[in-house]
Amino acid sequence: MKVLVTGAAGFIGRHLVELLRLRGRVGTQAVQALAVADQHLGDLPAGAVGLPGDLGSRPVRESVVGFAPDLVFHLAAVPGGAAEEDYALGRRVNLDATLALFECLARRERPPVVVYASSIAVYASGERGPITPLTPLRPPLTYGAHKLACEVLLADFSRRGLLDGRSLRLPGIVARPRAHSGLASAFMSELLHALANGERCRCPVSAQATAWWMSAWCCADNLLRGAALAVSGDDGARAWPLPVLRLSIAQVVDALAQRYGQDRQALVEYAPQPALEAVFGRYPVLDDKASRALGLSDDGSPQALIANALTRTAPRGFVPQVSLLI
Amino acid sequence: MKVLVTGAAGFIGRHLVELLRLRGRVGTQAVQALAVADQHLGDLPAGAVGLPGDLGSRPVRESVVGFAPDLVFHLAAVPGGAAEEDYALGRRVNLDATLALFECLARRERPPVVVYASSIAVYASGERGPITPLTPLRPPLTYGAHKLACEVLLADFSRRGLLDGRSLRLPGIVARPRAHSGLASAFMSELLHALANGERCRCPVSAQATAWWMSAWCCADNLLRGAALAVSGDDGARAWPLPVLRLSIAQVVDALAQRYGQDRQALVEYAPQPALEAVFGRYPVLDDKASRALGLSDDGSPQALIANALTRTAPRGFVPQVSLLI
Q1: For residue B132, what is the domain's CATH number?
Q2: Any residues with CB less than 8 A from the CB of B25 and at least 6 apart, and which?
Q3: Which B residues, 96 through 135, put their C-beta within 8 Å of a C-beta on chain A?
Q4: What's the gap between Cα A22 and its chain centre?
Q5: DSSP state of A263
Q6: Peptide bond into B130 cis (omega under 30)
Q7: Which residues of A touch B136 (CB under 8 A)?
Q8: Least packed by Cβ within 10 Å: which of A39, A176, A247, B106?
Q9: Which residues of A are catalytic?
Q10: Cβ A152–B149 below 8 Å, yes or no?
Q11: pLDDT digits (tens), chain A, 326 positions
Q12: Does residue B143 carry a catalytic annotation?
């Protein structure tokens, strides 16, 4: 069983590689955590191999074909804000390179399992909800449009029997590093870091703003579960939203204050920006029954979300818990 | 007002160019009906200009940019059967060239109206129906997957204010020329030609098989109406199925016998092929209320379908009827 992780040096990729390492799967011949990037790769997680370039380039694709993975986690992407600003970059990475990866993987004799990190950005913003499997998909950003197009293409490769694809729609994942990430949702992570550190925080949405939350460890665990999904194919579904905790900013602040002290409450200054509030402050109820039935899950509680989001070492619950394909 | 038609030499393109000509719009400086094709273009409809190559090539794209159309009908495509057999060809024409066209059109100051010929192939086959705007889209062929991906991309260009896109999902259009078309649904047209000519016909689906029907004149008329749609944008919808006549083969044969003589009934030999019956014999009810409310329409009756499908000159009703953008 050979495993390939694209975007292994990214925020979610690092957590995924670490879970693979803890399960004794990285650093061996069998697992290659591939950090594909055009730019500086930074420090790589233990066991990951850096591969400069992008998946649209022939040498990189040849490396992928040569490695011949049985299981692929495709995480490499340009985030939403950056892709909206630079259409050409977003197209090249989020659409072209993803399709190029699918095509070069589709040449294997036994179709590899492909877990594709899609996004809740495929849903229209401003839906009053609940969002169900029947909700029409109307991405409000080019990022989401490209993610949706790739979901459709991956489902088609799966129908043809060339890949065994599973698209998982990731919500906003916390707590990202505080450096500029190109994500419009960066304030969600910033809130956690600031209050944990006892710093003041200017929140660009209101206390009542509701969003969908998940920690990076929980997300990585779900990606691994995604690899082991028993996809029936009966209804042709190949894409699911990850189950989420739907929490208001006030609920998240309460959980932070519970953990770090009630003085944290006073550190938040609300300065709602209408544009951000419209996109990130009105998340409706998500009907995630189908995803939960498949074994995917959220962090469990606001308290667990905070604990999972702010620890650098994998929480015990995520290490040996799940029986996986790998 | 400058109008561009891609695929102008194709079956639907010819009917569209003829309707434009009858309305006094083709052959002038203002309208360019562009027949883009890699291969032999054949005889072009009056007023159409042949442009060898495909939209993925720079000289063709430069011609498009140079012409600077205000209204574009994008019909050029590789049909479903052929695209399923030759993935690379389908990808190049139905996905890459379409996106390249959108991108080069998106550079204009005033966003051009783009009427995109999508397909009912975006719907899963085997839906028990009714198919509504909430039905999940699960294309059963790569052709439909690429059409759906392009619908998503066109909606995104529209959201960005770079194009004013309208995707119309075309049903099987009759009566195509009897030459091999690469379409799995070719038998629908063959049935009409054979019975009109008093020839025997071997039908690969049962008499009870129900499909969605539309004549090429009606389709071309709908494309022109599509250009004039008042898209509210309120719900973000940018794609609609054309309204259809849902008829069994027996109903179509009855209408043919009514027009050409009851002896036609005996000319049909039914030899259902399970694979074809599954895809083309079980079309469910289509909830096309939203499309009809926008002014799109079907042929009116089985009798009108047959009359419209088998005439080479535009039926009177389609000529001056609609007040159009152009």
Answers
A1: 3.40.50.720
A2: B3, B31, B326
A3: 124, 133-135
A4: 20
A5: G
A6: yes
A7: 133-134, 236-237
A8: A39
A9: 143
A10: yes
A11: 788 888 888 899 889 988 887 876 555 555 666 666 555 566 776 666 777 777 878 888 888 888 888 899 999 999 888 899 999 999 999 999 999 999 999 988 889 999 999 999 999 877 787 999 999 999 999 999 999 999 999 999 999 999 999 999 999 899 998 876 666 778 899 999 999 999 999 999 999 999 999 999 999 999 999 998 877 656 678 999 999 999 999 999 999 999 999 999 999 999 999 988 887 788 999 999 999 999 999 999 999 999 999 998 988 878 765 544 44
A12: yes
- Structure token pair of residue A266: 């006073």
Q: Is residue B120 part of a domain?
A: yes
| Alpha carbons B211 and B143: distance in angstroms, whole number | 19
Is position A308 within any domain?
Answer: no
Pairing of strands A245-248, A268-270: unpaired
Nearest beta carbon to residue A145 from set B135, B139, B153: B153
In a domain, B70, yes or no: yes
Q: Kindly determine whether residue B160 and residue A142, on different chains, have CB atoms separated by under 8 Å.
A: yes
Q: pTM of the entire structure?
A: 0.93
Range of the domain at B22: 3-172+214-243+286-299
Nearest residue to B87 (alpha-carbon basis) of A161, A69, A91, A144: A161
Out of A138, A140, A149, name the one closest to residue B149 (CB).
A149
Residue B249 lies in a domain: no
**Separation between Cα atoms, residue A144 and residue A285, nearest integer Å:** 19
Q: Are strands A71-74 and A172-174 parallel, antiparallel or unpaired?
A: unpaired
Q: Give contacts of B149 with chain A, Cβ < 8 Å.
A: 149, 152-153
Q: How many domains does chain B have?
A: 1
